[in-house]
Design goal:
alpha+beta, 45% helix, 6 helices
């Protein structure tokens, strides 16, 4: 990790503090181009916007997918105050971002939370009805 990486990561941590000061969970992120120029930044607004998906990593991944061509997106680095959750990691992968640098790991974050404050997975069943479900999917990829 370079000094430039550390400086941009510190900015993501500042954005996390901004989120917390505004009544939101303390997470912040920014997206930098290959030369280190900040292209976009955001912080968590899931409480104030009443939107469980308003994570900064997801918002920046969506922005990049809309605003950047694939080659530019692949040359970016996302700096984020905490390791992206599964939802955000999926969006980052689909948006084609080049690299993610984070401060806290999910394991470190868990040690900072009171017991019992994590999320549990909803019960799931499946796979089922393969022969029916595959028809629209197969047709899409042909």
């Amino acid at each position: 990790m370079t000094r430039e990486d550390e400086a941009l990561l510190r900015r993501a941590i500042e954005l996390a503090a901004t989120a917390r000061a505004g009544g939101n969970p303390p997470f912040g992120s920014l997206l930098a181009g290959p030369d280190g120029t900040v292209l976009a930044e955001d912080h968590n607004t899931s409480i104030t916007e009443r939107d469980i998906t308003a994570h900064p990593e997801l918002k920046l991944a969506r922005w990049a997918a809309r605003e950047l061509d694939p080659d530019t997106a692949a040359a970016t680095t996302m700096y984020t105050s905490c390791q992206p959750c599964g939802m955000c990691a999926g969006a980052i992968a689909r948006s084609g971002l080049g690299r993610v640098v984070y401060a806290l790991s999910n394991e470190q974050l868990a040690t900072l939370k009171p017991p019992g404050t994590g999320f549990t997975d909803a019960p799931a069943e499946g796979p089922a009805l393969f022969d029916e479900a595959r028809i629209p999917v197969e047709e899409y990829y042909r």
